[in-house]
Amino acid sequence: MLSSGPHFMRLAASGCLGSSRSIATIISGKEMSKLLRERLKKEVQKMTSEFSGFKPGLLVLQVGDRDDSNLYISTKLKAAAQIGIDAKHVRLPNTATQHEVLQSIMSVNENRSIHGLIVQLPLDSVNAIDTELIINAVSPEKDVDGLTCINAGKLSRGELNDCFLPCTPRGCMELIRHTGVTVAGSSAVVIGRSKIVGAPMHDLLLWNHATVTTCHSKTRDLPEQVSRADILVVGAGKAEMIRGEWLKEGAVVIDCGINHIPDPTKESGKRVVGDVHYASASQRAGFITPVPGGVGPMTVAMLMENTVQSTRRFLKHD
Ligand code: GUN
Questions:
Q1: Whose CA is nearest to atom 4 of ligand 1?
Q2: Residue span of the structural domain in which 265 resides
Q3: How far is the CA of 120 from the centre of ligand 1 (A)?
Q4: Cα of 147 to ligand 1 centre, how many Å?
Q5: Does residue 15 sit in the same domain as residue 59?
Q6: Which residues lie closer than 8 Å to 207 by C-beta, 6 or more apart?
Q7: Ligand 1 within 6 A of CB of 83
Q8: Residue (of 299, 313, 303, 292) closest to 40 by Cα position
Q9: Residue-wise pLDDT tens digits, 251-261
Q10: 118 lines ligand 1 (CB under 6 A)
Q11: Residue 117 falls inside a structural domain
């Protein structure tokens, strides 16, 4: 957990003077992640000086050339470089076969200078590639995305100290802890059950002793479920689908969504919004993460944290 002071901002109350409605406190993932990356940089500097030039190694394997993946990868590589992690990017063409992708993973698994390996998702290939098979080919000891069956299984059984936690849920948990709201015994609602966000978030909240409900596309009365949440984590992939009116007053709202919607007032003609309708939600929530600047930067910081965690373990067992 982060030890530094709170990274909160009160939302401006303009137009709401005299109103009895609560105005949410913004939890800045951007600020929190900055401090976390500074701490990691110091730790890596110490490793490098103690072990004469040694650096943690991270490899990002990409198949194809999706624009969104390119952007995410460049953000990860930049963060790694700033911390002193030796990050490499290997891009296979979209014509790569499953066998070729597996071969690349095997060679990284055996490379002792690489401590973390992630396969950027989704795979962008013209060939039929089994994503599950690819993910599970990553050595669990280097699986800093926490997506292999081994790490996901450990998390689902509550072995939190013996696995890599997926980066987005781990970042969400840090943001929740930072509010000071007690997780144990709270009612937590997760929207979405993806392997990367919703399902591990459910497990992480559960083993932090919340009572967890996970909602999905077949959930009958979503507003009713949302209204029970002391803590709400949304990873639905639908722009602004969670309305402020549904929220319990004072809830902690963590928005994992990254959606582009048309906006003629912007030069690009679009803007980024989350899965939560921010304007209405911030009138009811106690705490809320912004998009951008909330979960996104924390996800990147947690990838760095997982890579350093993996490196620590390699050094201990060397
Ligand atoms: N694509 C979008 N988010 C992620 C992530 O956290 N990890 C990987 N490997 N791919 C992603």
A1: 121
A2: 5-28+166-296
A3: 5
A4: 10
A5: no
A6: 155, 158, 160
A7: no
A8: 303
A9: 999 999 999 99
A10: yes
A11: yes
Annotated catalytic residue: which of 34, 46, 55, 76? 76
pTM to 2 decimal places: 0.94
Q: Is the CB of 119 under 6 A from ligand 1?
A: yes
- Residue 191 Cβ inside 6 Å of ligand 1? The answer reads no
CA 192 to chain centre: 14
The CB of 144 under 6 Å from ligand 1? The reply is no
Distances in Å between the alpha carbon of 227 and those of 51, 209, 265, 284?
53, 20, 33, 11
Residue among 298, 297, 286, 294 at smallest CA distance from 10: 286
Expressed in angstroms and rounded, the spacing between residue 119 Cα and the centre of ligand 1 is 8
Give the tens place of pLDDT for each residue, 32-48.
999 999 999 999 999 99
Mark which of 124, 139, 154 sits at the end of a domain.
139
Summarised one tens digit per residue, pLDDT across range 145-174 is: 999 999 999 999 999 999 999 999 999 999
User: Is 266 one of the annotated active-site residues of the chain?
Assistant: no
Do 60 and 120 fall into the same domain?
A: yes
- The share of the chain scoring above pLDDT 70, in percent, equals 94
d(CA 41, CA 304): 10
Is 123 touching ligand 1 by the criterion CB < 6 Å?
no
Pair 22, 68 in one domain: no
Tell me what percent of the residues of the chain surpass a pLDDT of 90: 92
Can you tell me the distance from the alpha carbon of 265 to that of 54, in angstroms, rounded to the nearest whole number? 49
CATH number of the domain residue 285 falls in: 3.40.50.720
Tens of pLDDT, residues 96-147: 999 999 999 999 999 999 999 999 999 999 999 999 999 999 999 999 999 9
- If you take atom 2 of ligand 1, which residue's CA is the nearest one? 121
For residue 102, being part of any structural domain is answered with yes
